[in-house]
């Protein structure tokens, strides 16, 4: 989608069916891998947002990006 839309940056978001918004190790790993892959085509990752039942966690706000 980033290539199709000629994006300079992107933001990822997903929900946790468990209802707990705290990012998992898998979330951190995939974010890192996506950042590396997108860097090859000069697309920055601005944030990854995890949505829980009553909370939202931003990787950028936690300094994880």
Describe the structure.
With 65 residues, the chain is α+β, with helices and mostly antiparallel strands. The chain has a single domain, classed as Cytidine Deaminase, domain 2 (3-Layer(aba) Sandwich). It contains one helix and three strands. It has one helix at residues 25-39; strands at residues 9-15, 44-51, 56-58. Strands 1-2-3 form a three-stranded mixed beta sheet, covered by helices on one side. The mean pLDDT is 97.
Question: Secondary-structure map with pairings?
Answer:
Elements lengths: L8 E7 L9 H15 L4 E8 L4 E3 L7
Parallel strand pairs: 1-2
Antiparallel strand pairs: 2-3
In short:
With 65 residues, the chain is α+β, with helices and mostly antiparallel strands.
Number of helices: 1
Distance between the termini: 20 Å
Q: Note the run of SSEs as H and E.
A: EHEE
CATH superfamily placement: Cytidine Deaminase, domain 2
Question: What attributes characterize this protein structure?
Answer:
alpha+beta, elongated, Cytidine Deaminase, domain 2, 65 residues, three-stranded mixed beta sheet, 1 helix
């Amino acid at each position: 989608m980033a290539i199709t839309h000629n994006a300079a940056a992107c933001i990822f978001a997903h929900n946790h069916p468990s209802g707990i918004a705290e990012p998992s190790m898998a979330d951190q790993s995939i974010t890192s891998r996506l950042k590396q892959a997108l860097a090859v085509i000069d697309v920055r990752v601005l944030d990854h947002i995890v949505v829980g039942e009553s909370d939202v966690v931003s990787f950028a706000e936690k300094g994880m990006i």
